Amino acid sequence: MSGKSRLPPLQALAVFEAAARHLNFTAASLELGSSQPAVSQRINALENQLGTPLFERRHRGVVLTETGEQLYQIVRASLQGISRQIEKIQSKIQRDVLRIDTDMGFAGYWLLPRLDPLQRLIPNVDVQISTSPNEFSLRDSSAHLAISFGDGQVPGCRSHKLFPERVVPVCSPQFFLAHGRPESAESLLRLPLLNLPDPRPSRWLNWTEWFRRQRLDPGEGVTSLTFNAYTLVIQAAIKGQGVALGWRPLVDQFLSSGELVTCGPECRTERGYYLIQPIPESDSPLNLKVKEWLLREALSFYPREENTPTAVNFV
């Protein structure tokens, strides 16, 4: 350092900046978590090192000298620049976040069992799952990706069909045996049916539509129980409370485990679960990686003779 002027300690300059900004040593000490005498000592030491006063001490406070004002402008700008650069560095090392919006049934019965492989795929990303019974709305969502039930037509988004709507009546094995092995559509008319609330216009297959597809009229005499969440409908079916409409692949795990059995014909519609990507988000490497994983996972649901998921663009 020979031949070069020695800079004051950064801590001394930070104390000076606070004191000059407040024009009050006591206020500066409170901001810095120090004491008024300690701030005064730091300022005195800095003035001694520079060989010139930086403040004029007055009865009701201090004011900057001309030299003090010049130094304050330089130090303040420098500390602000350091602060901004530190924020940039910290933002680069913060973990990425992936938010997925979907409904409770899909989240609980399909996505949750696959969270471990998803997190292994993106180990340094915080995955946030948000659920809502409503249709996906780009205006009301901050999601990077959404998995939404419907026709896939969402303005401002790109859609990829994951699963068609395939629905089959299900009940517990005990209920199945206790009610004379109900295997025909007509035999279900005399049994308690488990429902979701029926929105208008209808967004998914309901019991009325299912019976009509079997060329039956359910009429007014059907016994039913209605729940406001699909997870409750399925739990009621597992507990033997009645027959539920089982959306595949959501109920596949319960069919495989034997907790539920099918008890009627399957229906399929043109609706289904779609992977929705807001177009500004679509090209991020993280989104593309997760999208490809979701599509691969969806392929296992399709029999070999069926068409695989395809992309549909909507602007």
From TrEMBL:
One of its GO terms (molecular function) is sequence-specific DNA binding. Keywords: DNA-binding, Transcription, Transcription regulation. Residues 8-65 form the HTH lysR-type domain. Pfam families: HTH_1 (PF00126), LysR_substrate (PF03466). One of its GO terms (biological process) is DNA-templated transcription. InterPro entries: LysR-type_TF_proteobact-type, LysR_HTH_N, LysR_subst-bd, TF_choline_sulphate-util, WH-like_DNA-bd_sf, WH_DNA-bd_sf. This is Putative choline sulfate-utilization transcription factor. It comes from Sodalis ligni.
